[in-house]
Write a structure and sequence with these properties.
Blueprint lengths: L1 H31 L10 H7 L4 H22 L5 H11 L4 H12 L7 H17 L4 H14 L7 H20 L5 H12 L3 H13 L4 H13 L3 H20 L6 H7 L23 H11 L3
């Protein structure tokens, strides 16, 4: 009797499992595919909640974002990345790691990147160039994303061309601030492709002056030669002499890569007053120096 009773109970249990297993599995699958609830207060409340430990909170949020991103990529589930990014920037607007990886976090988040993600990533990177205006790596990252990666997410050919050109200008700015001079040739190729010869030549001249690599200088001169810019080639060599003269005036302990971001040597006493805004010797950046020299020659 007991054996028959046990067998009946087991049969009922198996029948119940078979009956409920499929619906429960479907519900579980639907739950795991939904976005997580990100419990982060709004920016104003978040600043109060950290009790002044902003740096610690930023590090925690950044680490949490990276862990969650990896988990969601593995599980192919969407993640509210902007919620984390906005919280971090509310506490530390110039947080450098964010601007180095924001494009990857947005355009490669699951299930797949969209045109809106590319536009959002660009907004964050533009913000990075504004809060870190002299960080050549932020400018370089922004330029590379806008010139090479982001256009693949756009649908308008005209907008793709515009983004590539703007990216090339950002790369040129990065080189002026101390970035890899190899990128100057990529930027010049993009600018020349869209017919901006003056900008191409101007960038090559500056890049020539701001690098000490013989191989890169030879490539730049060859590029100028191919563009039949013989006068500009001579100007590039002259600007190199000006740059070298400026470097000799700088503290001797500064390396070449450290001197470039500091800009031209400036005598604060001699450059006081309103007329300093036009005098060549009072230029505050390399771009400003080249432009003032050009104006002084009446070009």
């Amino acid at each position: 009797m007991k054996v028959a009773y046990a067998a009946a109970v087991a049969a009922v249990a198996c029948g119940g499992i078979a009956l409920l297993q499929a619906p429960l599995a479907g519900d579980l699958h639907a739950v795991t595919q939904r976005e997580d609830v990100v419990i982060i207060p709004p920016p104003d409340e978040l600043r109060l909640a950290t009790l002044g430990y902003d740096a610690a909170a930023v590090d925690y949020l950044w680490g949490k974002l990276l862990v969650e991103y990896g988990t969601h990529v593995h599980e192919k589930r969407p993640l509210d990345v902007p919620r984390y990014l906005d919280a971090i920037l509310a506490l530390e607007e110039d947080y450098r790691p964010l601007y180095q990886y924001v494009d990857t976090l947005l355009v490669y988040r699951p299930p797949r990147g969209t045109e809106d993600d590319a536009r959002l990533a660009r907004k964050y990177l533009v913000r990075g160039t504004e809060v870190r205006p002299y960080d050549h790596e932020v400018w370089m990252h922004y330029g590379q994303f806008v010139a090479f990666l982001a256009p693949s997410f756009l649908t308008s050919d005209a907008e793709k061309d515009k983004w590539r050109e703007e990216g090339a200008r950002a790369l040129a700015r990065a080189v002026e601030l101390g970035g890899d001079a190899d990128r100057s040739l990529s930027a010049a190729s993009i600018l020349s492709r869209y017919g901006d010869r003056d900008a191409t030549v101007r960038h090559l001249r500056r890049a020539y002056a701001l690098t000490e690599e013989p191989r890169i200088r030879e490539s730049i001169l060859a590029k100028l030669q191919a563009m039949e810019a013989n006068a500009e080639k001579a100007d590039a060599e002259q600007e190199t002499k000006v740059f070298d003269a400026q470097r000799r005036r700088a503290p001797p302990f500064l390396k070449f890569s450290e001197f470039r971001p500091t800009g031209p040597y400036l005598d604060a006493a001699q450059c006081a007053g309103l007329d300093a805004t036009t005098r060549v010797e009072c230029a505050t950046s390399w771009s400003d120096l080249w432009d003032r020299r050009k104006l002084s020659r009446g070009e």
